[in-house]
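ingest -> validate -> predict -> emit
validate: passed (alphabet ok, no gaps, 146 aa)
predict: started
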Amino acid sequence: MAVERSAHVTWTGDLMSGCGTYTLASGAASGQVTWASRTEEPAGLTSPEELIAAAHASCFSMALSHSLAQKGTPPTRLDTDATATFERTEAGYRITRMALRVRGIVPGVDEAAFRAAAEEAKEGCPVSKALAGNVEITVDAALVSA
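emit:
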C-alpha cells in the first residue's frame, strides 16, 4: 500500500528578501519560511530544517513506541526532541546532523533495554532511512520516573 502526502509552497521574491508560504495538503499546518528564518532568528517563522526535525521526532517516536509495544512493554509516554543542524560546508549549505533526544516512561523496561530500543527505532524509522548516508543521526535516550 503506497501512501502519498503532499505540501504546497508559494514563493515570492528573491532568496534574501523573499518569502514562502507553505500549506500541508491535510490542512494540519501552514506557515511562512524565509531565508532569514532559516539562517538567523526565526522571528515566529519556520524553516525546512525545523519541519524535517518535526517529521523526524514524530517518526522516531512512532517507531520507538511500536518497538516497545511489540516487546510487551508499551510506553506510557515518550518526549522526543529533534535538532537539525543546518550549516555551510565546502559543498554548500546542508543539513549535517540530526540529534534525537528522547525521555520515556516505560514500565517494565530498564535503561539498557530502553537505549537499545531507541537505537533500533533510530535505524528503522522511515525518516532516519531517508536521511541515512547523508546526515549524521545521534540518539540520546533515557528513562524518567512517572
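Residues 48-70 form the longest helix (23 residues).
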